[in-house]
Amino acid sequence: MSRPPLPPFTEATAIQKVRAAEDAWNTRDPERISLAYSEDSWWRNRSTFVQGRPAIVDFLVGKWGREFDYRLIKELWAYTGDVIAVRFAYEYHDATGQWFRAYGNENWHFDKDGLMTHRHASINDVAIDESERKFFWDASGPRPADHPGLSELGL
To answer: Is the pTM here over 0.70, yes or no?
Structure first.
């Protein structure tokens, strides 16, 4: 299975890979998202360690069982041949209606087929008022091309 764009990355293909990941995560479809990762992909997500596609699916099901109306924006930070670093922010609310903006960084390593073999994510949540939200688009799809990114939003 191949998941273009493939390494070695250029700036353009790294940006394309980042946007593809953002679009996939905004579907909140764990099965679809898991296909971007190698069968034995290894994750550190905050203080949780996950390995393999079935564990990734379980992790994401749990995540979106707690994080409602999730919307994510990713931005390329740096890249080399088979590694991409991103910064991101996402907004969600919990079961009580409290809104949060989560800020973080991820480091990704890819195999020759463009599948992510390692994902290291550091994330901090900040409680926000609903009036402080910045991510507005239909929650059932990707961020529209004309919606500002992190830099444009001052994040």
So the answer is: yes
